[in-house]
Specification:
The protein is mainly β and 111 residues long. It is built from no helices and ten strands. The strands form two sheets. A six-stranded mixed beta sheet has the order 2-10-9-4-5-6, with no helix packed on it. It has a four-stranded antiparallel beta sheet with strand order 1-3-8-7, with no helix packed on it.
């Protein structure tokens, strides 16, 4: 079973940028879709962005135009570039390959 490890979270101010990374212990091309999800306190986990093996991406409307998901099959990595961060982006961000969840990385956007 593939293990996923997220990193790159932190405390940033509104308008700043972060890059999240997801390292997979196995071949990510065995998963047609890789994704990033997030869960804010008191809220359900929600999809942030998905990317297919062919590179087609899909985003939650609230992050479209600000976030970019990418995958590097050679390195078995998935990334989430987050720009113009807002306080409402504060959450624990999780990587998923359709079967496995990582442990999550905290993103806090606050002035």
């Amino acid at each position: 079973q593939v293990q996923l490890v997220e990193s790159g979270g932190g405390l940033v101010q509104p308008g700043e940028t972060l890059r999240l990374s997801c390292a997979a212990s196995g071949n990510i091309d065995s998963s047609y879709v890789m994704g990033w999800f997030r869960q804010a306190p008191g809220k359900q986990r929600e999809k942030v962005a998905l990317i297919t093996i062919g590179g087609t991406a899909n985003y939650h409307p609230s992050v479209s135009g600000r976030f970019t998901i990418s995958r590097d099959s050679a390195k078995n990595m998935v990334y989430l570039d987050m720009n113009i961060l807002k306080p409402e982006d504060t959450a624990v961000y999780y990587c998923n390959d359709g079967f496995t969840w990582g442990q999550g990385t905290q993103v806090t956007v606050s002035s």
